[in-house]
């Protein structure tokens, strides 16, 4: 099957695993929206000024959570349904499988993103300057986290280990770095540390572009470089390091 | 060209278990080959290696002329596999499984729609088209998965215990389907625990035991190798020494099995009736070949 066929197969997988479940059970959207919406509520209680941080953090969290949820999807296909072996023994390539699952997570996150877009529009947060940065950052976050989820999934044999791991990782990636709080709260020397996580780098860029914080000179470029490098690294790791065929 | 060729194929797991031990075999095209063996004999491991799902430790395997390690992509274009214990995806409907799987394999949408529609009828799920897989019975789920695999245009099918959990009628339908598949010139490597299934379907049977091929041949040839016409099963009341003069005697799960000719079976039955002991007698079949081979390997002490 050629490249076009593989892309088509990815879209089909995205449709099967992303569009159909959400159409059938729209209620599931709440599973990944609860955390950002709760924080939105809490931060609004403390200060209206924190709402912008909460909205930007919400965008990052939704994509990070649904991206890392790929881990659960693969474990479900591989160890619960055991249909992954049917995919392996077929013309579908591992990259197309990974991309298809990533697309399904993107489709799955769309309703949540629309809610956040609507709230951001009401708030007047989505300026023409911010939108391109937001789209680019979210794209890289999506790639990074789906790849991370896919790679981790291949090392999990016991399905029950997958669900808590998704919860732990998504909280870790959205609470530790300055996703829901201002990057200016971090001591300057600790700022580069937040670049180690894609959500940290993404948050710095979004907060800076939204005019919420100022970054030291060169930090913006470094954040872009980190975000791109992490997405590439994680994607390559998923492509080559994951165990499509078992040893 | 053979559909499958292996040479000294071995698989040793990290736990130290040797699942396959220098297996060499050839499966000609257009045949149904039955892989028989006890649990843990290595059947699934062999199928998984051939279906490019598992890497062998040593040896070589070629499927449809391509090396399963070096040319896995080329192999995958032309095979389909139904894994043991696979279940359909609960949140997808019957139609979405059939149609979606064909699209995933690269089939054009019109052809996929036609094939999926035909297969719905073939596996008897046309009135369940929109039913979610999670709402199907176990047997229906198995038929759905089998339908997905059979609807493909794969030249070689790996079916790992395809009829497990099916009722007798459904099993008969599946057998009919597989025979039709073979008539189209396609090849099936079938693992099964059911001797009846292996006997009914297979052009050739491979008996795998402890990772090695213990015997191979047509079912009727293997049955002839039992060297007896009848199997008489005696539940207690006789000592093995008393029975062994009627033929070869084997103890299996608390019963004594005697392999003998017609005359021996009749004599033994009369003696048992005189003693008021329950006996069952039937012509030998593939199960008996299997038992004698495996028992001969595993436990000469158990052969009375």
Features:
heterodimer; A: 247 residues; mainly alpha; 10 helices; globular; B: 304 residues; alpha/beta; six-stranded mixed sheet; four-stranded antiparallel sheet; 37% helix; disordered C terminus
Q: What proportion of the residues of chain A form beta strands (DSSP E)? A: under 5%
Strand order in the largest sheet of chain B = 6-7-8-3-9-10
What count of domains describes the coordinates of chain A? 1
H/E series of chain B, N to C? EEEHEEHEHHHEHEHEEHEHEEHEH
Helix/sheet category of chain A: mainly alpha
Strand content of chain B: 25-35%
- Mean pLDDT across every amino acid position of chain B: 89
Radius of gyration of chain A: 18 Å
Shape of chain B: globular
What is the general shape of chain A?
A: globular
- The Cα radius of gyration of chain B reads 22 Å
List how many beta strands of chain B DSSP finds: 14
Main sheet characteristics of chain B: 6 strands, mixed
Oligomer: heterodimer
Average predicted confidence as pLDDT of chain A:
88
Q: Structural class of chain B, please?
A: alpha/beta
- Terminal Cα span of chain A: 25 Å
Describe this structure in words.
The complex is a heterodimer of chains A (247) and B (304). Chain A has helices spanning 3-24, 29-46, 51-68, 70-80, 84-88, 94-123, 130-153, 162-175, 198-209, 219-241. Chain A has one domain (3-240). The mean pLDDT of chain A is 88. Chain A is mostly helical and 247 residues long. Chain A is globular and about 55 Å long. The relative contact order of chain A is 0.14. By secondary structure, chain B is α/β, with parallel strands linked by helices. In chain B, 37% of the residues lie in helices and 27% in strands. Chain B has 11 helices and 14 strands. In chain B, the strands form 3 sheets. Chain B has a 6-stranded mixed β-sheet, sandwiched between helices. Chain B is globular, with a radius of gyration of 22 Å. Chain B starts with a strand and ends in a 6-residue tail after the last helix. Classes of the chains: A mainly alpha (247), B alpha/beta (304).
């Amino acid at each position: 099957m050629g490249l076009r066929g593989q892309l088509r197969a990815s879209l089909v997988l995205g449709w099967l695993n992303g569009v159909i479940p959400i159409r059938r059970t729209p209620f599931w959207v709440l599973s990944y929206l609860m955390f950002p919406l709760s924080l939105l509520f809490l931060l609004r209680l403390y200060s209206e000024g924190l709402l912008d941080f909460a909205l930007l953090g919400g965008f990052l969290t939704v994509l990070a959570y649904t991206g890392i949820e790929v881990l659960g999807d693969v474990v479900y296909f591989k160890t619960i349904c055991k249909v992954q072996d049917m995919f392996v023994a077929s013309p579908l390539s591992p990259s197309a499988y990974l991309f298809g699952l990533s697309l399904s997570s993107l489709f799955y996150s769309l309703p949540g993103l629309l809610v956040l877009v609507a709230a951001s529009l009401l708030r007047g947060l989505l300026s023409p300057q911010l939108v391109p940065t937001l789209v680019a950052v979210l794209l890289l976050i999506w790639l990074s986290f789906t790849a991370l989820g896919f790679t981790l999934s291949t090392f999990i044999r016991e399905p029950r280990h997958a669900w808590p791991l998704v919860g732990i990782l998504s909280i870790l990636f959205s609470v530790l770095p300055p996703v829901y709080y201002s990057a200016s709260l971090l001591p300057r020397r600790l700022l580069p540390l937040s670049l180690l996580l894609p959500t940290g780098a993404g948050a710095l860029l979004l907060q800076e572009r939204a005019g919420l914080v100022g970054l030291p000179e060169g930090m913006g470029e470094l954040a872009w470089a980190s975000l791109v490098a992490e997405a590439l690294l994680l994607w390559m790791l998923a492509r080559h390091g994951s165990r499509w065929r078992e040893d | 060209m053979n559909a499958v060729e292996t040479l000294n194929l071995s698989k040793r797991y990290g736990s130290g278990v040797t699942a396959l031990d220098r297996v060499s075999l050839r499966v000609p095209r257009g045949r149904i080959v039955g892989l028989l063996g006890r649990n843990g004999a290595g059947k699934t491991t062999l199928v998984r290696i051939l279906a490019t799902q598992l890497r062998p430790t040593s040896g070589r395997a070629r499927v449809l002329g391509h090396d399963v390690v070096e040319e896995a992509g080329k192999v995958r274009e032309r095979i389909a596999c139904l894994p043991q214990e696979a279940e359909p995806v609960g949140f997808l409907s019957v139609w979405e499984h059939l149609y979606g799987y064909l699209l995933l394999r690269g089939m054009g949408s019109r052809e996929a729609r036609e094939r999926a529609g035909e297969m719905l009828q073939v596996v008897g799920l046309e009135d369940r088209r929109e039913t979610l897989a999670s709402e199907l019975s176990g047997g229906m789920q198995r038929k759905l998965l089998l339908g997905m695999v059979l609807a493909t245009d794969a030249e070689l099918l790996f079916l790992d215990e395809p009829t497990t959990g099916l009722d007798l009628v459904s099993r008969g339908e599946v057998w009919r389907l597989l025979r039709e598949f073979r008539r189209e010139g396609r090849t099936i490597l079938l693992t099964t625990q059911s001797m009846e299934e292996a006997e009914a379907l297979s052009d050739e049977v491979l008996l795998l035991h402890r990772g090695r091929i213990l015997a191979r041949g047509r079912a009727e040839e293997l049955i002839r190798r039992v060297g007896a016409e009848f199997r008489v099963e005696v539940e207690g009341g006789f000592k093995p020494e008393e029975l062994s003069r009627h033929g070869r005697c084997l103890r299996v799960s608390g019963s004594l099995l005697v392999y003998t000719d017609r005359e021996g079976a009749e004599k033994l039955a009369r003696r048992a009736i005189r003693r008021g002991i329950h006996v069952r007698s039937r012509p030998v079949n593939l199960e008996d070949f299997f038992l004698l081979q495996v028992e001969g390997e595993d436990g000469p002490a158990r052969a009375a």
